[in-house]
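Running low. Got one?
___
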Amino acid sequence: MRRSRAPRSAGDPASIRVSAVEIDSKDCGAAPALAEGFGGPIFEPTWWPDDTDAVTYSLDESPSRLSYRIGSTRRDGTPICVIGRAGEQPERTLPPGNWSRPPELEAWRGLARTNDGHTHAVLFHELQTIHLIGYASLDELMDAVKSFRRVTAG
């Protein structure tokens, strides 16, 4: 199990405060074990861009939430991952930016933004909030979403 501290901002962007939150991370090895640790279904992309390394399956726990992370690193060092957590709280999960509602993500009640050459999406599906990070374009991100398979504990 890996422990790390992640900075967390709170408040008005003009007066951001940062506090450390300890996160315990456990490598689950595969999707069924990750779903079991998460306590419910997870959404695993079966398609990854050609420039991605081996995929890892992690369960992340902080004092306030449990989340799953399925991810890798791209050849240029960019992290690429799907992060899911229970609950749908759109107002609390969107980082700042210009978010749009692409028609391609309508079935997933999704929002997307492109920033610094990367596309980030947030989906709200089956009482989960699912972030997709590190994709080069909306088309690439859609290939991942279309490949999602719902995995339950094995």
